[in-house]
Amino acid sequence: MKTKTPLALDLVKRRTDLGMTQVALADALGVHPLTVSRWERSTQKVGHPRLVLLFLEVLAERRRSQDRAAIDVTSIGEAR
């Protein structure tokens, strides 16, 4: 069994932190789901790793922004 690279481990963590499946990430990136699986198993190199990681960071930031907005909206009624 091949040892996972640090990049593969990072991809798995970021994807799962976002609650995404491999299929969802593949759809978002425009690649085949087997490609994401192979990246995460370190059996295929990521063609543009910085772009993939940047994309995941943008998704995470968007999620954080949405979470902050939801908290702000729900807390409006509590302040009165």
What is this structure, in a nutshell?
This protein has helices at residues 6-17, 22-29, 33-40, 49-76. The chain has 80 residues and is mainly α.
Description:
The chain has 80 residues and is mainly alpha-helical. The protein has helices at residues 6-17, 22-29, 33-40, 49-76. Helix 1 (6-17) packs parallel to helix 4 (49-76) and helix 2 packs across helix 3 (33-40). The protein is elongated. The model has no long low-confidence stretch (mean pLDDT 90).
Would you spell out the secondary-structure blueprint of this structure?
Elements: H1 6-17, H2 22-29, H3 33-40, H4 49-76
Q: Look at the structure and name the CATH superfamily.
A: lambda repressor-like DNA-binding domains
Strand content: under 5%
Average pLDDT level: 90
Largest sheet: none
How does CATH name the architecture?
Orthogonal Bundle
Helix count equals 4
Helix/strand class: mainly alpha
Distance between the termini: 59 Å
Number of domains: 1
Describe this protein with a few key phrases.
434 Repressor (Amino-terminal Domain); 70% helix; mainly alpha; 80 residues
